[in-house]
Design brief:
It is a single chain. Helices cover 36% and strands 17% of the residues. It is globular and about 85 Å long. With 560 residues, the chain is of the alpha/beta class. The chain has helices at residues 54-57, 136-140, 153-156, 159-170, 182-185, 204-214, 226-231, 258-286, 292-304, 308-325, 328-334, 351-357, 359-368, 413-418, 434-446, 471-480, 491-495, 513-517, 521-529, 531-556, and strands at residues 14-24, 27-37, 40-46, 63-64, 77-85, 90-97, 111-112, 121-122, 218-223, 249-253, 344-350, 373-378, 424-428, 451-456, 487-489, 501-503. The chain contains 20 helices and 16 strands. The strands form 3 sheets. It has an 8-stranded mixed β-sheet with strand order 10-9-11-12-14-13-15-16, with helices on both faces. A 6-stranded antiparallel β-sheet has the order 4-3-2-1-5-6, with no helix packed on it.
Amino acid sequence: MDPEVSKGKANHLTATGLQAVSAGSGYVQLKAKDKKADDKQLYVVVDTAYYEGTETSGQLLKYTYDVLNADNRLTGSYKFKFTYNVKEEKLYVQVAEVADKLVKASGTEWKQGLGDTKEYKFRIQISPLDCTGCSNCVDVCPAKEKALIMKPLESQLGQQKNWDYITKHIGYKKVVDKTKSVKNLQFEQPLFEFSGACGGCGETPYIKAISQLFGDRMMVANATGCTSIYSGSAPSTPYCKNADGRGPAWANSLFEDNAEFGLGMYVGAEKLRDRIQMLMEEAIAQCQRCSEELKGVMREWIEARVSSARSAEVAARLVPMMEACGCDYCRQILELKDFLVKQSQWVIGGDGWAYDIGFGGLDHVLASGLDVNVLVLDTEVYSNTGGQSSKATPVGAVAKFASAGKRIRKKDLGAIAMTYGYVYVAQVSIGASQAQLFNVLKEAEAYPGPSLVIAYAPCINHGIKGGMTRTQTVGKQAVECGYWHLWHYNPQLEEQGKNPFVLDSKEPDWAKFRDFLLKEVRYTSLKAVSPEDAEALFQAAEQNARWRYEGYVRRSKIEY
C-alpha cells in the first residue's frame, strides 16, 4: 500500500484528532484508526515533524505505516484532516493543526506530566508583554532555590514568540478534573486574563480562580469600583472565551444597585429556562415528530436543569437530537439553547459597595433566597474612589474621613448574613489557604441558594512595607496573627445534624498582631503623628480581633 499526500484543496477531507505517543528510543508514534478494508482494521502512523511553511504555503506532512524516527521531537496532540479511499488504497492527509512547533533547538523546556497528565509534556509559559512585574510569583515560591526569578523585560522578549505560538497552536488540554485540586485547576484556562489592575493587586487572583472554575457559563454583575475599572476599561477587557467560544458575560452597574442588577440577570435567565421547560413539556405531550428517545432526554433535562454539570451533560446530547428533529418545538428551544446549561451568576464588588452604599441591595438579594453568588473583595477602604474609610475599615487604620485613625470597629458582614440561616457565607484569604478558597468557591456555587464570599484583598492603599510584591504573603500573615479569620457557614450541614459553621483557620499567634500593623503605612502614619493615640487604637484593634475570633470559636463549638 502506498499512501500519498493530498495535493491542494480538491479532496474531500474530514477533521480527526490524532495523538502522539512515545515509542521509546527517540521514536514518536502518531496513530489513528482508519476505515476497514477487507475486514481488517487499518492503523495509520503519521510523522509528527513540523515542516516550515506548512501553515502558510500548503506544504503537507508525509506519513507512513511504519514507525518513523522523530529525532526526539516533543510529543503532543496533533490534528490532521484525512480521507481513505478503499478502492485506490490511498490515504489522503492534510495538516489541520500542528500542536508543537517548539523543538529542542529553540531551547524551550517542557515538563513531563505525571498521573493523569503522564501522556503529555507541559510548560508554564510567561507572556513578557503582559507581565506586570509585581513578582508575587517569586515571593510566594516555596522552593529554597527560587524556581522563578525576575529579569529585565528586554532579556525576556524572546519568550513572547513562545507565548504566541503556544496560545495559538497548542492551548489548554482538558486532561484532568479541575474540581479535584488546586493543582488540577491550574491546567484550566483562566477566562479572566490580563487586567489593568495595579501590579500585585490582591483582588484579581480571586476572579481568576472563579473564571477557571465556572467561566464557561458565568454571568457577572460588577459594581463600580476597582473591579469594574480593570474589568471593563474600554475598548479592552480581561474577560475572554475558550476554544469553544464560551466565556463570562459581564456588565457593570452602579454602587447603589449592583446586587439588584445581578439578581435581575439571574431572574431573567431563569424565566427563559422556564420557557424551555414549558416547550419541552408541550413537545413531550403533543409532538408527533419528536421521537420517544428525544422526549426521554427532554425529561432528563427538566430533572437536571438546576444542576450546572448535569444540565451541561444532557444539553450536549439534546442539541444534536433537536437539530435532527426540526419540529416547531425543537426550533423554538434551539433559539434558546444558550440557556440549556444552568448559568453561574456572580455579583462582584468591593467593600465600599457591599458594606456601605450597596448594602441595602445586597441584603435584599441575600434575603431573596435565590441562587446568586456574591464575591466581596475586601480592601477595607474605598480603593478606586480615593481611599476613603468604609465600614470595613478597622480601628486604628488611617483613611480619608478617618485621618486620625478609625475609631469604630469593623462591621462583620459575614455574621450579619449568617443570621438568615439559609445563606452560604465564607471568609477567605488566597494567600493564607488556596485549598480553603478552592473548596469554598465550589461549595458556594453549588449551594442551591444565595452565597456570600468575603475575600481579604491587600491593596496599594495599605502602604505595604516591601511593596505590592508581598500581597500574597500579607494575606497569609493576616490570618497567622489573627487580623483576618478563615471560616465558612454551610446551611446544608445543619440539615445533616452538623454545625453549619466551620472555623478553618488555626489559633492565631497574637504576638505577631502588632508587628503586622506596623508593616503597613495606613497604621504607621498615625503612630508618626500621634504616638499615644496610635498606641490606644492599636490595642483596641487587637482586642476587637480577639473578640471576633472568640465569637467564631464559640459558634464553632455549638452542638447540633
